[in-house]
Amino acid sequence: MTQISRDDVQHLAQLSSLQLSDDEADGLRVDLDNIVNYIHQLSELDTTGVEPTYQVTDLQNVWRDDVVDDYGLTGQALVKLAPDAVENQIKVPKVL
Amino acid sequence: MSKIADYLNQSAVENVKQAIAKARQNESYHALLSLTETRALERAAKVDNGLIGGRLKGVPFVVKDNFLAFGAPTTAASKMLENFNAPLQATAVEKLEAEGAICIGKANLDAFAHGGSTENSAFGPTKNAFDQTRVAGGSSGGSAVVTALDIVPFALGSDTGGSIREPASFNGVYGIKPSYGTVSRYGVVAMASSTDTIGCFTTNAADAELVMSIMSGRDPKDMTTLPDFFAPTAVKPSQRIGLVKDFMSEGVEPEVRDRTNEYVAKLRAAGHTVEEVELPMAKYALAVYYIVVPAEVSSNLARYDGVRYGHRAEAVKTLAELYGRSRDEGFVTENKRRIMIGSYVLSSGFFDAYYLQAQKARTLLVNEFDQLFTDYDALIGPVAPMPAFALGANTADPIKMYLADIMTVPASLAGLPAISVPAGKTSAGLPVGVQLIGKRRADAQLLALAKSLECDEVKN
Questions:
Q1: Could you report the predicted ipTM of this complex, rounded to two decimals?
Q2: Class of the CATH-defined domain B1-460
Q3: Would you call B348 an interface residue with chain A, using a CB distance cutoff of 8 Å?
Q4: What is the number of other CB atoms lying within 10 angstroms of the CB of residue A90?
Q5: Does the pTM exceed 0.95?
Q6: Fewest beta carbons within 10 Å, which of B50, B110, B138, B310?
């Protein structure tokens, strides 16, 4: 049962912002196909009237006061993490 | 049998020097990606001078390298974060340091914690502590191995679907995955936010109690944390314990079942009642997991775009190329698999059939657990269907690799505490762990039960 085509892989790669090499795309097509076939077994379960579980904390909304907290970080420390920066601003390649 | 206690009354500088020397002697295991030697020695000197004290005064430890910590880059074992120097520390690390503990290094893992063998590390696999031709388990493989090799008395890991329990089982140490929300995830590289938990590896239950009681509690920086409920406790006598039949099937290696049955016999000898119970949804749990987790992974890993931090591809000409090539170069294949499966199950046309169906199936699984816990104090079964497998044995077949998680993902999806307890070895000398699963927030009770049965430690 083949569900994932080469076009599907390219579409999923695009949705995922991944520019794959052809070799890797071929390998991933087979892997994704196997994984989708495996997870497809859930279709045999009757879940009529069952509510989904998105989280398991029992917590409802968790509120905090609306005050600024810099978490002990400066803007400078964060800009320093960027691959390239000029005068405390993140520098990106020209793409236009 | 606390090992941490042995470190408390010694010079912190000596503790750190010895741990680092032992780490260097054991480099062939590739358990550590970096040592934080300079910072560790500075902190140790402060401890020895009485400037820092606490319940872990001068005790060296290791963190999985997806914890933000000072002293070395936080790589998540990926090219994406290879040069990422964290501007802050994880809350868990801060809490341990506030009690005098000293981080000496950062442990190897599957890149971004995606995997069950540590073979997905961008920097090469970690070897099993008992057999260097076998996997360490994963994704917290390095943390398990440094604990098993006695380099440090405890190490931190993260467990999203078994990433603490499985390597603990493979290396003969204790591993605790606490109830969801017990320990703050602030400052830990996010994988799947609805099941990510922080726990530890130790060589005995008492040390796990101590480390967990320090790390637990509400953190305003992680809104999913619960008010602190973790308090070491005495073992409850005459417990009713369910042996999960679905975890003892033909697919589980006979020697793993044997070690589990022997542990069951010990529970009975200690006055507890053990009965077989059924968890019919267990067989669907892995499919649920490999829908829910990739969905969350695809969202959480969207932040790595080559712009603000992390790897950036060179000589790009378009914005799509900047994102696409930075991500292609920064992620390992398993990261890409999970991101793309996530994109698939969340995409229009498939959302209801996969993602929504999985979350409904998750409800059925949670309900089965809840039902069992009205009658039973704890559940027991093996951690994994097999002991540590050979390096390379499962790398070509992702489904085969995922199947190692089949008995650990159910507790993750339900947010339940679960621990891996050493239960002896196979005839080939490989450790086997049993898994104890408890009610939500029964973490301390599980550790108390394990402690009461503590046997001769599995020796290397």
A1: 0.96
A2: alpha beta
A3: no
A4: 15
A5: yes
A6: B50
